[in-house]
Amino acid sequence: MATKPRIIVYILRRDVRLSDNPIFHHVSPVACKRDSKTELSHDSISNGKPDLNITHLLPIYVFPANSIEVSGFLSHEAQRSPYPEARSKVAGIWRTGPHRAKFLAEGAWNLKENLEQLGCGSGLEIRVGYINHVVEHILDWYNSDRDENGDTKVDIAGVWMTGEEGSEEKADERKTRAITEERGVTFKIWDDEKYFVDESDVPFDNISDLPNIYTQYRKSLEPLRKRPRRALPSPSRLPLLPSVIPPQQEPFEIPTTLAGIKDCLLAPLNQDPTFGLPAPPVWPAGTQSAHPYSGGETYALQRLSHLISSGAMSSYKATRNGLLGLDFSTKLSAYLAQGHITARQIHWAMFEFEEGRGGGEGLTGYGTGKENDGTYAVRFELVWRDYMRLCSRKFGSKMFHSNGIGVVCRPDNIDNGGKDLARSHYEQQPSRKRWKYLHKSGAGGDDPAKNREMFNRFGSGRTGIGLIDASNREIFLTGYTSNRARQNVASFLTAHIGIDWRVGAEWYEFLLTDYDVSSNWGNWQYIAGVGNDPRDGRKFNPVKQALDYDRQGEYIKAWVPELRNVRLTKSMGPNKEEIDENRLMGLYQAWRLERWERDSLGLSGLDWVEHPLTKIEFSVGRGGSRANVNVKGRGRGNWRGQGSTRGRGFRRLGEEEKANRGDFPSQ
C-alpha cells in the first residue's frame, strides 16, 4: 500500500527567497533522504532534526487582497471581486501602486524559477485573496478529495508561515491560525531571519522593555559587527510539490506567465493612471531612474555583489546624501522589505570584504579585519530597520494613529521605569499637533477642499519649491527617491503646510517600491513629531537643503524640466564661469526669478511659479554667507517658528547627530 502523502503548506509573504530561509532550510533533509544517491549534508540539517514526517512541500505566495488590488485577476470582466478595493483608510489611495506591484511579481516569479531550477520537483504556486481565505480553500479542497473508502487522499501535516510585524499582518496570522485549528491542522509561525539581529539575541525578554529611543537600543548591541548570526545556506534540494494542487479559488484566475501576472496587477491601477492628480508628472526627456532594478533574490544578490566589488559599500557614508545616480546609496531596501535578501547576508558580504576574502581586492578597506566608515554606516541603518520593526511590535496599531506613539515616548509621559503607559492612559492624551485633513475641517477651521487641492499639488510636484517638486515627480514616476529627499518631503508636508502626516505615509506606501510598513510609518511619525523623538519633529528648510545637496541644480533640473533653462552661472573672466548662489535661489523657488526671466522661460502664469504653496525666504550674501530662514504662507503672515533647520539634515538623537545619518531607510 502506497504511503499517503503528507504535505506542509508554506505561505510566503515577505520571505521570498531560497537562501537564508529557515523553512526551506529546515525541510531540505526530506529531499536528501528521498534521493538514495544523496547523503545528508551540512546544509540539509536544521536544528538537529533531519527526520521530518512529511513527503511534500507546497510553497504558496499570496498577493493579499487587503493591501494589493486583485480585481485584475477576475476570470471574466463581468465578474465582481468579493473583496473591497485595496485602498488606504485616511486618503483612499491605492495601497500598492504600479512600481511595487511589478517588483512583487518579479520577486515571486524569480523564486518560482529558482525553485524549479533545483531540478528536484519543487516549485511555487501563486494565489490572490485574503491569506486566511487562501488557506481555508486549500484545506477544504484537500479534505473533499477522498478515495472510495471515504478517506482523504493526503494529510496536511501543517501550515507554516514566517512571522511579520504590523497590526494587519498579525491579524492575518490570527485568522489563519483559527482556520487551521478548526480543521485540526497544525499551524506554526516561524521567526523570520531577514533581520540584522536574530530574534533570540535581542537584549531584552519583553517587548515592553524596548527602549523608546533608538540610540539606547543601538548602544545595547554594539559592537554591531559581532551581532549577526551566520546566514543559512541555500538548499540544493527540497521536497516535491504535491502531484495534485488545489486551483485558485473562483472568481479569480492566475496567469501562467510573469507578464500575465503583471498585467493583472496593473489593470485596475491603469484605469486611472493619473491616480486622482489633476496634473500628474510626465517623464522628463533624458532623465534616468535611480532605481532601475528588477525584483527577486537573484537580482538582490547581484546588486550586493556589485556594491562590494565596486567599492560603493565602503563609500556609502560619504555618498548617501546623493540625489542622482545608481550607487550613491545601496538600493537594497526594496529587496530587504520583501525578504528577497536578508540583513545578515549583507553583513556577511561586508564581513568577507573586511577580512580580505571574495570580491573587492585592492579597494580601500579590503582585508583590514575591521569595518570602515561605509560598512559601519550600512550596519547602522540595518539596525535602524530592526528597531522600527520592534517598535511596530511594541506599539501595534498606535503606529497608524494620528497622535502616533509620541505621547508615550516623551519623558513626561514615561512611567514605571520607562515602560509603556496603559492604553487607556494613552488614549486620554490630547494631540499636540493640529493637522489639516482631506476629509474634514481640522481644529483651525480649515477647508478640506483646499487641503485636498494643496495635497494634489504636492503629489504632482507643483508646490513651487524645487527640491520638493523634483522628489515628488521622481517618486511618482519611478517608485524611488533618495533618503535626503524623503526627509525634506515629509517635513514639507507636515511642518510647512501642516497636512496630516498619515496622508503622506499612505502616499509613500502607494508609490514606494521599497515600502516597509514599520520603517515607513515609523519614520513619517518621527519627522511629524508624533514618533520616537522628544523634540516634536523636525522642520527642514528645503531651500538650504537644496543649496547643501543640489549645489549645481542637477537634480531639480533633471526632474523639473520647466526649469532646465534657468541660468545658474556668472562670468568670472574670459571663458570662466561659476555657479552663482543667488541665481540658484530662482531654481530652488521659481517665484524668485525676475519677471522678464519668467516670461522668457515660459514660466509666467504657472500656478506653482506665481502662487507657491509657501514662500521660504532664504538668501545668500556676498561671499556665500547665508541669512536665517523666514517661512511665509501665501500672504497670510509668518508660519509659527522660523523653520531654521541646520543644513546637516535630519538627525536622530545623541550620537546620530555626529553621524549625520538620515531617517528613511532608502538604502
TrEMBL record:
A Pfam family hit: FAD_binding_7
Top-level taxon in the UniProt lineage: Eukaryota
GO biological process, one term: photoreactive repair
Electron transfer via tryptophanyl radical (site feature) positions: W435, W501, W524
Function: May have a photoreceptor function.
Family: Belongs to the DNA photolyase class-1 family.
Name the UniProt record assigns to this protein: Cryptochrome DASH
Organism annotation: Amniculicola lignicola CBS 123094
